[in-house]
Amino acid sequence: MLFKLSYTSEVSQIKNTLQTLETSCRELKTRGLLVKLLEAILKSGNRLNAGTSRENAQAFNLNSLLKLSDVKSSDGKKTLIHFVVEEVV
User: Fold this and answer.
1) Which of 80, 1, 6 is nearest to 37 (CA)?
2) Which of 67, 69, 64 is nearest to 79 (CA)?
3) C-alpha to C-alpha distance for 70 and 81, rounded to whole angstroms
């Protein structure tokens, strides 16, 4: 019964997620802004990790993107993702 009640909303949410994924994949294929953003994030991570065993990373786990908002500026107003996006743009 619960399945029937939530089916339509669940399908809609999955469709939206898949559409976002398709758009991202299309952007990656055309080497657009998303690729530049991911490259900038990797470079930023390497600079932040300078002097450690992680300083020359060639890739990063996509789950790490969730942590970019945890790194804040000294005044606490900007996050690392804000900084990287501003630099890329």
Assistant:
1) 80
2) 69
3) 9
Whether pTM exceeds 0.70? no
Structure tokens at 54: 């992680």
Domain range for 78 is: 2-88
Supply the pLDDT for residue 14.
Answer: 95
Amino acid occupying residue 27: E
DSSP string of 25-54? HHHHHTT-HHHHHHHHHHHHHHHHTTTSTT
Contact, 70 vs 79, CB < 8 A? yes
Task: Give CA–CA dist 68/84, Å, rounded.
Answer: 10
Question: What total of structural domains would you count in the chain?
Answer: 1
